Amino acid sequence: MFEANIQSRMSQTAKHIIFAGRVQGVGFRFTAYNIAKRCQLKGLVRNLSDGSVEMIAQGHAEDINDCIRDIQESFGGYIDETKTEDVPISSEYVDFKITL
């Protein structure tokens, strides 16, 4: 059990996440950025033209899950749906940023 927990913390992964609902104009990207930085993730967060917010998160699987959970807890009343999918890790992301 202990080894499995260490293994999940050691493995790097990447996720593409879409948060749908009333997630624009409420400080969502700024809060998501701060949570992602605290979780030591790389990637980006940005608004999409359909009113949703997109996030690319790269890091330890458990840290990504913690980040998503913390965002959902912070904006529970605003998020109607969270979609996640695994994506390949990209060397493009060297830190976490907010983009337009």
Task: Describe the structure in your own words.
This protein is of the alpha+beta class. It has a single domain (2-99), classed as Alpha-Beta Plaits, CATH 3.30.70. The chain has helices at 2-10, 28-38, 61-74; strands at residues 12-21, 42-47, 53-60, 79-86, 96-99. The chain has a five-stranded mixed beta sheet. A hairpin with a 5-residue loop joins strand 2 and strand 3. Helix 2 packs antiparallel against helix 3 (61-74).
Side by side, the strands of the main sheet go 4-1-3-2-5
* Number of E-state strands: 5
CATH topology: Alpha-Beta Plaits
Strand content: 35-45%
Task: Summarize the amount of helix as a percent range.
Answer: 25-40%
End-to-end Cα distance: 42 Å
Shape: globular
Q: What CATH architecture label applies?
A: 2-Layer Sandwich
Mean pLDDT: 92
The H/E string reads: HEHEEHEE
Rounded radius of gyration (Å): 13 Å
Count of discrete structural domains: 1
Name the poorly predicted regions.
1-9
Q: Structural class of the secondary structure composition?
A: alpha+beta
Total helical elements: 3
* CATH level 1 name: Alpha Beta
Sheet having the most strands: 5 strands, mixed
